[in-house]
Amino acid sequence: MEQNTSFSEPAGAIKAIDRHSVHQICSGQVVLSLATAVKELVENSIDAGATNVDVKLKDCGADLVEVSDNGKGVEEANFEGLTLKHHTSKLRDFSDLIHVETFGFRGEALSSLCALSDLSVVTCHESAQVGTKLVFDHNGHLVQRSPHPRQQGTTVSLQQLFYTLPVRHKEFQRNIKKEYTKMIHVLQSYCIISTGVRITCSNQTGQGKRSPVLNTSGSQSMRDNIGAIFGPKQLQTLLPFQQLSPSENIMEDYGLKGAELPQNLFTVTGFVSQADHGVGRSATDRQFFFINNRPCDPLKVTKLVNEVYHMYNRHQYPFVALNIAVASECVDVNVTPDKRQIFLQEEKLLLALLKTSLISMYEAGVNKISINYTPSISKNTLLCLRILEAGDDTIPVIRSPKSSLNLGGLKAAFSNYHTTGTGTKSGASISANSGPTQKTLQSFFKGSEKTPTHRPSSQSPLKPTRDIAKTPGSDIDSGKDSTLSDCDSTTATPDSLCCGSEFNSPEQPQTEPFTSTEDCSLSPDAKRPRKEKSDFPTEHKSTSPPTFSEGSSISKVDAPVCIQKRTVPLKFSLQELAGRVRRLQDQQKQKAEDGLQYRRFRAKINPGENQSAEDELKKEISKDMFKEMEIIGQFNLGFIITKLNSDIFMIDQHATDEKYNFEMLQQHTVLQGQKLIVPQKLHLTAVNENVLMENIEIFRKNGFEFLIDEDAQVMERVKLVSLPTSKNWTFGQADIEELIFMLSDSPGVMCRPSRVRQMFASRACRKSVMIGTALSTTEMKKLVVHMGEIEHPWNCPHGRPTMRHLANLDIISQD
User: Fold this and answer.
1) Would you call 801 helix, strand, or coil by DSSP?
2) Which residues span the membrane (predicted)?
3) Above pLDDT 90, what percent of the chain?
4) Which of 298, 357, 486, 567 has the least C-beta neighbours within 10 A?
């Protein structure tokens, strides 16, 4: 009988991983990106005492990375150990780590780069007569050496970075532009802090000409280095950091006691942006922090600086270049492989110091206005304010320039005012019922919890704008007509109706017709909102009781409608009722056995659940499904009811058409430019100049034209010769810089500045189907199909939802 020995075999024994595998595994953890590779080589050059460091890239670093310096060079005795793991000249034992002042100290960088690329070194020590070229294998062993002419210094070349790791290499090449941008940002930090060192960087694409990326002049001043990298325009917006001792209030906030704290532990120097609006940045792309001249990412310090800056300029981010000097025994730099995370003693004291100093600097620059200046309000301004206030009926309308201004009302009017186009036809009436369900639905489609109440002017009587078909047995009472009056329709501005249309709850009586696909007898006139004189007066609610003068007569009064009741016999069977109860119990039991049925759509129609509802739609609805949707009808002349299998959806006809028109304008509109009399210098950084030149076609589609001279000096290679204009919209250098920032993250992708998007959103809103427009089945189907032709159909440009799930027929039938 054959025995089964599979269970009697011993478990895998714990053994040491072979050295080659350990080398490959650990190397991938030390060098993670192009930025890390360049950082390690630049740090080696600066540690070697170089005053000139040159970084050369080919195809943004995908093919070649070469770093040359004029440092001390490598002695011949150190050739063998140059690229071996944990071989270094910076320290001998762990105790030396406390006082280490060089960038590198682990002896891992060159060894890891050998494992990830083809590495070669050309070096000439100060004591040597001729240079030597060294070639190493992936294990860091020297395999070839030969004489090579070179002045004093070292050149390290990396070819095909990450090619020994196929998955990472493929991802690296796919995202090479992003890797290149991150590398430039890291290199900029070393350019700023390395005073007395001239750092240059250039890139060559294919067989083309080598283009400069950045360079410094080797100045002894951090300010000069900032100007060399970012231009003189950036220098004009900077404030030198002025260090102050922490105030008592701020120390209490951090739980610090002055008597127990060390004195003069930190010394902070550097520069930050002014707090004036327009001088900050749209992102945190120019923030550099250093601890003892070492570039790092102190998260708490970064957060604090931005929070203080937002107290004075909430819409932008500051330029920051701060160096924190502290005793070396209070710092732990051996935290992460890239040494970007650093632990500090007394970190709360540093935060209190920074907060006190920044607040003092920014407070000195605020509230600088003349006390003799008295603002005046012109008649035109008052007219504009009346128009603005009309957008929110909860704010009293200013009737006359002589009337007093309600500042609270003005503030609310400005905060609620939308600078968008109209979403409702002029003169068309909108039904507005009351009730909790109605308010919830209105607040959802307005994007606000507040439901505006229309209060008619006392100078204009209410006039109903729509007839109510009165039929026998109708539940609609003559005193319940809630359509807007002529006064309200003319007082409300188009902008106040945009992206804020109201609709009635299915639970409330409707005064608007429900247009169904089964109704084929509608005349063309029936498809337009009617505005006729009604025989039913609108109920006018007032907080004060009505008063009647003598001799006055009431020609019309509200009276109950007499409805003739009809008696119908009801068939009832106790056995049938018992059978129905048993069937319901069986269904519930079966449901309990099968488990809870999976519900694809759980989010409710509520402003607080907009994100959840959008995520569900993204997950469950694909582009092809919009073509399969069946049109049920139109609700309240504003919403299309559709059915997909057993799910019922509600689609906002104006919002969905606006989103389609907006994306079409985004994709196909080419803005016309206005020529400038004199070309304008932009003073862009070398990096930004390269981004602009590589994406010149995208700038042309946005209406910008440039004069490019590749042979000119850096920061003067690009001049603006044409700006886009469109009616009252004008654009400038801020829009160019915004485009450059977006293209740095997504090179080659068509994008628009935010102000161009605002213009397109306004145009798309005005040309879209309005609320109050009756649509045929064909027109409704067209709008639904269009949703499947755009990338993001779930929200209009102004943030209004386009589609929501109403119900599932299967679940309703089971309940």
Assistant:
1) strand
2) none
3) 27
4) 567
Total count of residues recorded for the chain:
815
Residue 726, beta-bridge partner list: 729
Written as one string, the DSSP assignment of 759-800 is HHHHHHHHHSPPBT----HHHHHHHHHHHTTSS-TTB-TTS-
Sheet-wide strand order for 515-516? 515-516, 630-635, 639-644, 647-652, 803-808
C-alpha to C-alpha distance for 782 and 326, rounded to whole angstroms: 67
Contacts of 664 (CB under 8 A, 6+ apart): none
Judging by DSSP bridges, how do beta strands 267-273 and 238-240 pair with one another? antiparallel
- The second-level CATH assignment, the architecture, of 222-363 is 2-Layer Sandwich (3.30)
d(CA 395, CA 387): 11
Q: Angle at CA 794, nearest 5°, toward 788 and 800? A: 135
* Closest by CA position to 146, among listed 115, 123, 114: 123
Closest listed residue to residue 37, CA positions, set 160, 204, 209: 160
Query: Distance between CA atoms of 452 and 430, rounded to whole angstroms?
Result: 13
Burial of 525 (0-12, 13-18, 19+ CB in 10 A): exposed
Q: List the single range of 103-107, 200-204, 275-279, 626-630 with lowest mean pLDDT.
A: 103-107
- Taking each helix axis as running N to C, give the angle between helix 109-116 and helix 34-47, from 0 to 180 degrees, rounded to the nearest 10: 140
In degrees to the nearest 10, what's the CA dihedral of 532, 533, 534, 540?
A: 110
Residues 53, 131 contacting (CB under 8 angstroms): no
Instruction: Assess whether pLDDT exceeds 60 at residue 512.
Output: no
Higher pLDDT pick, 19 / 125: 125
- What secondary structure does DSSP assign to 92-149, as a single string? SSGGGGGG--SS--SS-HHHHHHHHSEEEEEEE-TT-SSEEEEEE-TTS-EEEEEEE-
Indicate left, alpha or beta for 67 from its phi (over 0: left) and psi (-120 to 50: alpha): beta
Q: Which two structure tokens, joined as six digits, stand for 644?
A: 């997909």
Residue with tokens 């070349």: 157
Q: How many C-beta atoms surround the C-beta of residue 508 within 10 A?
A: 16
Q: How far is CA 549 from CA 178, 552, 553, 684, in A?
A: 80, 6, 9, 78
Task: Break the chain into its structural domains and give their ranges.
Answer: 19-215, 222-363
Determine how β-strand 673-681 pairs with β-strand 142-148: unpaired
Taking the C-alpha atoms of residue 207 and residue 57, their distance in angstroms, rounded to an integer, is 12
Q: Closest Cα partner for 354 from 265, 281, 277, 237?
A: 265
Here the tokens at position 527 are 């498809």
DSSP per residue over 616-641, as a string? HHHHH--TTHHHHPEEEEEETTTEEE
Q: DSSP string spanning 713-726?
A: PTTSSEEEEEEEEE
- Rounded CA-CA distance 439/171 in Å is 50
Three-class secondary structure assignment of 183-210: HHHHHHHHHHHCCCCEEEEEEECCCCCC
* CA dist., res. 759 & res. 761, Å (int): 5
Which CATH number does the domain 19-215 belong to among 3.40.190.10, 3.40.50.1220, 3.40.50.10580, 3.30.565.10? 3.30.565.10
Residue 742 clears pLDDT 90, i.e. is over it: no
Whether the domain at 19-215 and the domain at 222-363 fall into the same CATH topology = no
- Between strands 803-808 and 238-240, the pairing is unpaired
Rg (the chain; Cα; Å): 36
User: Which among 483, 499, 389 is positioned nearest to 444, based on CA atoms?
Assistant: 499
- Token couple for 249: 């209030």
Query: Tokens 């739609």 map to which residue?
Result: 617
Q: What is the pLDDT of residues 218-256, one digit of tens each?
A: 899 999 999 999 888 889 999 999 999 998 899 888 888
Q: What is the DSSP string of 152-172?
A: SEEEEEEESTTTTSHHHHHHH
Contact 456, 537 (CB under 8 A): no
pLDDT value at residue 786: 92
